[in-house]
Design goal:
CATH class of one domain in chain B: Mainly Alpha
Structural class of chain B: alpha+beta
Number of strands of chain A: 7
Shape of chain A: elongated
Radius of gyration of chain A: 21 Å
Shape of chain B: globular
Radius of gyration of chain B: 23 Å
Number of domains of chain A: 2
CATH superfamily of one domain in chain B: Fumarate reductase/succinate dehydrogenase flavoprotein-like, C-terminal domain
Number of strands of chain B: 21
Largest interface: A-B, 72 and 72 residues
CATH architecture of the largest domain in chain A: Orthogonal Bundle
Strand content of chain A: 5-15%
CATH superfamily of the largest domain in chain A: Alpha-helical ferredoxin
Largest sheet of chain B: 6 strands, antiparallel
Structural class of chain A: alpha+beta
Number of helices of chain B: 15
Strand order of the largest sheet of chain A: 2-1-5-3-4
Number of helices of chain A: 8
Oligomer: heterodimer
Largest sheet of chain A: 5 strands, mixed
């Protein structure tokens, strides 16, 4: 190689939630195995744009850097992705980084995704145990049941599925695929089932499961390959039956 | 009587366990975390959690678990809490099972257990290869339930700065900074529980998450808390070197039959699959016939070091060895290890089902931490600690899959003790004047103002790289006194240069580099505790290995190191405590012999 290879990254930045967004371009020295988070670390260590302007380190969320904490989701070349597992070698240059567009912006690539955690409260995403004292083993479950539950339980709350969903917006207030898939998980659990009716009722009406337009973007972008569309179909059926039952009960 | 108000700092397994117990006992929890608690570092734990359930007909017992733990820790752990943890473990597994953790099952529908390092029993329950994630989620869900009932208030995106300590040396709350608006606030509480995890960032690149800086522990040490056994740092034998971090390759890969080897021929360039059995050196199996690839981590790490640096047999001359799973059928691998194989595939680009993985040791865990007594109390009244940030249970080396258990166990002890302490405080009507909070807030704001307006030339990120390089080179696998002393000199130099830090960002909104620079100071102070503690301990024990003092020296060093901060001299001082070995008499630790 004549010259050392470089990486060009264009980042959409914004100082505060109220200020105007702007764009900055960086040129970094390429190293094998480089990913987006290591590129952002390089920028932090030497925050100078490609044009030589001294700037500030880019604000972004990150923690585990191995695609299991769900922190570093952003739009990479327009796609909802985790920055840690986005290897430079697999990305077309110049690489563009933007914050998620459907969540309140905090700064640069940081957005506020607390809506998912609020939704998990609404759908009672937990198993209602009696207490933490010793009550013996849990219910016996077959290996098949475990193998069905486990993939659903690997959701990292990154919100990629919500960002990519055309129905997830202020107008619909759609709860999104991640929370629906958690409903499927907890409704299958022998003890979790106890709250099934509450969960299904939380998914009825405006913003509920009926807002899904079956675009299937969610399952496309999920970094954990969670069968989200199957979850939506499954829970959709449960909600329908619940609605019919509720109708005859009233 | 009023409900006790307990602050829990940290939302990993330990913090969430403590929070659940406090809420269950009727207390109110203010839960502080840098990241949303569901994104805490506990998610990274992969292989499993230990409990002697004896579901495999092997005659396992909690005593055997206790013995393995103490022996694995080279007899440096105080024995009563280690025994209590092992006895509580089966009940904790049952509770997690009831909470819905999708543990792997046997054909009969019971919990499945796998083998892990440092034991001959199948004692490790697991949920695929993402056990930490699954446990954290189960506890996160229970805390969310308490949150929706108003018993827990979360403060996510808040950075702990210090404790509020009154004139009687009683902890009365904390001082924390909002990571968005950067404002400093104090929060009163009847008791405070620290659960702030590991310190990996002190070593630059490690298997730890970004938030694991040890900043909180260091701040407390500088406020008068003892920091114990800081020199005991676990280097995990199998990590995947990366540009931004060292990614863990779980011990469960070896628990499921993974074999570590190198080509016998130095610089052998053949495709590993084409190298015949006879030309491979399975050095762990040869050196440790009884435990084989499942020797404890300190032993495996030193063996890999030796093969690479003394025998010069690293793959292709690089500091790497093979961890081979390719002899195991794909379906088994997918069922039991998918999560970790996926990490290797995503970050390295090879499929470990087809190609042996290339791995090397990486800094992973601190056995040392805030000193606590058997009830998880620090030496500051009203201040508790649990999980990786405390020093208990693991002694000189932690066994794999004991950390998840010790985190939950620690939280389950700290929570109730903090509540009972707080109830007494409320009964006695003891209170602190408002000025205590005011003066702590002012002290922290002054630190912020000074840092923000500093006019120097030093870049905090580059100082951090120097810190990490020095600590990794001199304070991990192999330690020499000369290098350790040079390390401390270097740390003093870095602290001096830190005074001239220049921030490239001086804004007062979500300023991540400012927060990092603040943590860096605490990392530097704590690094001195590690380096000096290591320099002092002239013996080899567990993870602490000095070629010049290759034997364990119980006569002089069967002692807990306790560092405290001498504020006037701005450096650590040391005391030593006897280790409580009342239950199992220390014996030589050897994994190579057939005993």
């Amino acid at each position: 190689m004549a010259n050392s290879k470089t990486v060009i990254i264009k980042i959409k930045r914004q100082q505060t939630p109220e200020s105007k967004p702007y764009s900055e371009e960086f040129e970094l020295t390429y190293r094998p195995g480089m990913n987006i988070t290591s590129a952002l670390m390089d920028i932090a260590a030497s925050p100078v744009t490609r044009q030589g302007k001294v700037t500030t380190p880019v604000a972004y969320d990150s923690n585990c850097l191995e695609e299991v904490c769900g922190s570093c989701a952003m739009l990479i070349n327009g796609q909802a992705k985790m920055a840690c597992s986005a290897l430079i070698d697999n990305l077309k240059q110049p690489i563009t980084l933007e914050p998620f567009s459907k969540f309140p912006i905090i700064r640069d690539l940081q957005v506020d995704r607390s809506v998912l955690f609020e939704n998990l409260k609404k759908v009672k995403g937990w198993v209602p145990v009696d207490g933490t004292y010793d009550l013996g083993p849990g219910p016996r479950q077959s290996a098949e049941e475990q193998e069905q539950a486990y993939p659903l339980s690997r959701c990292i709350s990154c919100c990629c599925c919500m960002e990519a969903c055309p129905q997830f917006n202020e107008k619909t207030g759609f709860v999104g695929a991640a929370a629906i898939s958690q409903v499927r998980l907890f409704n299958t659990h022998p003890t979790g089932k106890a709250l099934k009716v509450d969960r299904l009722q939380a998914l009825m009406g405006d913003g509920g499961i009926q807002e899904c337009g079956y675009a299937q973007n969610c399952v496309e972008v999920c970094p954990k390959d969670i069968p989200l569309t199957r979850s939506i179909a499954d829970v959709g059926g449960q909600v329908m039956w619940q609605a019919i039952k509720d109708f005859f009960r009233t | 009587m009023a409900n006790p108000k307990i602050i829990v700092v940290g939302g990993g397994l330990a913090g969430l366990s403590a929070a659940i117990k406090v809420a269950e006992m009727g207390g109110h929890v203010d839960l502080f975390s840098i990241v949303p608690v569901k994104r805490s570092h506990s998610v990274c734990a992969q292989g499993g959690i230990n409990a002697a359930k004896n579901l495999k007909g092997e005659g396992d017992s909690t005593w055997q678990h206790f013995d393995d733990t103490v022996y694995g820790g080279d007899f440096l752990a105080d024995q009563p809490p280690a025994k209590a943890m092992c006895e509580a473990a089966p009940g904790i597994i049952d509770l997690l099972d009831r909470m819905g953790v999708p543990f792997n099952r046997t054909p009969e529908g019971l919990l499945d257990f796998r083998r892990f390092g440092g034991t001959l029993y199948n004692r490790t329950a697991f949920a695929g290869a993402t056990t930490g994630q699954q446990l954290l989620y189960a506890l996160d869900e229970q805390v969310r339930r308490y949150e929706s009932e108003g018993k827990v208030t979360k403060y996510e995106a808040w950075e702990f700065l210090s404790c509020v300590i009154d004139d009687q040396r009683v902890c009365r709350g904390i001082c924390a900074m909002d990571l968005r608006g950067m404002a400093v606030h104090t929060f009163p509480a009847d008791a405070v529980i620290m659960a702030t995890g590991g310190i990996g960032a002190i070593f630059g690149k490690s298997t730890n998450s970004v938030v694991c800086t040890g900043s909180a522990q260091s701040a407390l040490y500088q406020q008068g808390a003892y920091y114990a056994n800081g020199e005991f740092i676990q280097v995990h034998p199998t990590s995947i070197p990366g540009e931004d971090k060292l990614r863990l390759m779980s011990e469960s890969a070896r628990g499921e039959g993974g074999r570590v080897w190198v080509p016998k021929q130095p610089g052998d360039k053949r495709d590993p699959k084409s190298i015949p059995e006879g030309e491979r050196w399975y050095f762990l199996e040869e050196w440790y016939p009884k435990y084989g690839n499942l020797v404890p981590r300190d032993i495996a790490t030193r063996a890999i070091h030796k093969v690479v640096y003394e025998h010069n047999l690293g793959i292709d001359g690089q500091p790497m060895v093979y961890l081979d799973l390719t002899h195991i059928d794909r379906a088994t691998l997918d069922r039991k290890l998918e999560g970790i194989l996926e990490i290797y595939e995503k970050f390295v680009g090879d499929d470990p089902r087809d190609v042996p993985m290339k791995i090397f040791p990486g800094m992973h865990y601190t056995m040392g931490g805030l000193w606590v007594d058997f009830d998880q109390r620090t030496n500051i009244e009203g201040l508790y600690a649990c999980g990786e940030c405390d020093h208990s249970i693991h002694g000189a080396n932690r066994l794999g899959a004991n950390s998840l258990m010790s985190c939950i166990y620690g939280g389950f002890i700290a929570g109730p003790h903090a509540v009972r302490y707080a109830q007494n405080i409320i009964k006695s009507g003891s209170q602190s004047p408002q000025t205590v909070y005011e003066s702590e807030r002012k002290r922290q704001e002054e630190i912020n103002t000074r840092l923000m307006n500093n006019d120097g030339t030093e870049n905090p990120f580059l100082l951090w790289r120097e810190l990490g390089d020095t600590m990794t080179k001199n304070c991990t696998v192999i330690r020499y006194n000369k290098n350790l002393q040079e390390t401390d000199v270097k740390l003093v130099e870095l602290l001096e240069r830190y005074r001239h830090v220049n921030l490239s960002d001086r804004s007062m909104w979500a300023n991540t580099s400012f927060v990092f620079a603040r943590q860096l100071y605490n990392m530097l102070q704590l690094a001195r505790v590690i380096a000096q503690g290591a320099a002092m301990r002239d013996e080899s024990r567990g993870a602490h290995y000095k070629p010049d003092f290759p034997e364990r020296d119980d006569a002089n060093w069967l002692k807990t190191t306790k560092a405290y901060f001498a504020a006037d001299a701005d450096e650590p001082r040391f005391e030593f405590d006897q280790v409580d070995t009342s239950l199992i008499k220390p014996r030589p630790r050897r994994y190579d012999a057939a005993t």
